[in-house]
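request received
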Amino acid sequence: MNEPHESMPPGRQLAVVIGAGGMGAAVARRLSHGHRVLVADIDAKRAESLARQLTGEGGEVESVECDVTRPESVAALADAVREKGGFRVLAHVAGLSPAAEDFGLILRVNLTGPALVTRALLPHAGTGAAAILVSSLAGHGFTPAPAVAALLREPHDLRMTERIEAETAEEKRSGALAYQISKYGLLALARREAGAWGERGARIVSLSPGLIATPMGAVEFEHSPTKRGLLARTPLGRQGTMLEIADAVEFLASDRASFISGTDLLVDGGLAGILAEA
Ligand SMILES: NC(=O)c1ccc[n+]([C@@H]2O[C@H](COP(=O)([O-])OP(=O)(O)OC[C@H]3O[C@@H](n4cnc5c(N)ncnc54)[C@H](O)[C@@H]3O)[C@@H](O)[C@H]2O)c1
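response:
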């Protein structure tokens, strides 16, 4: 029988990866080179298949079903992490694209979800642990209405979404606006939670990809001609790759990033800078 774990050094620390989609898979694969990995996704089959694949590649990878928008599901994830002795890395990659079009669902998955997950897992963060929340370039250069900005201070509140909906005229409730609000809120979440994580000797950061070649990115290109315009304006003249996102996550998760917390890393080929200066 194939025993992929036997050559592994003992005592590898746990990395929890939320999201087994394109980018989540790339991140889980990379983290599996130095950690035990627990992959969580609402799509249990997708998470299981990724765990099987990475185990076949020699990793020590398990999967668990988790809907980040449901507190009881997140609590079960936290229990699983506690039983495994806590974690060293949390990479929250899961998110819905604007193409999902459901204003409330995008807010819940992209913002309430990471807020619930980071709060539930913080007590299980080991010393030196790091949480990396995948936000987006879309959260930059955007300012929500003041009433919405105030509501974003309580992303754990399950009523936040309906309150934001109530503050947003019906004709403005697009997938694109929900996406921008959610990703803006995620940048703020990492800044605001840095103190609580610091008290445990742990860090929390956000990471904002620009245009990245993923299946989700491909759908976005179909839906939005403006994306093609953004690609043309990207200083590096191309989309980023999932490996480049995995590189950045690996760095932020490592001790080489030990003084980086409460901030964001843009991995966008320079696009945000160009847009800010336009
Ligand atoms: N692709 C890009 O160009 C791009 C650019 C900027 C930011 N991002 C961000 O990167 C992240 C990942 O993108 P991707 O292309 O890998 O997406 P993807 O659609 O391939 O994967 C997302 C995963 O999230 C899971 N998911 C959805 N709802 C969930 C829930 N309630 N609970 C748990 N899991 C849930 C899905 O099942 C899926 O496996 C997203 O947060 C996205 O906003 C992507």
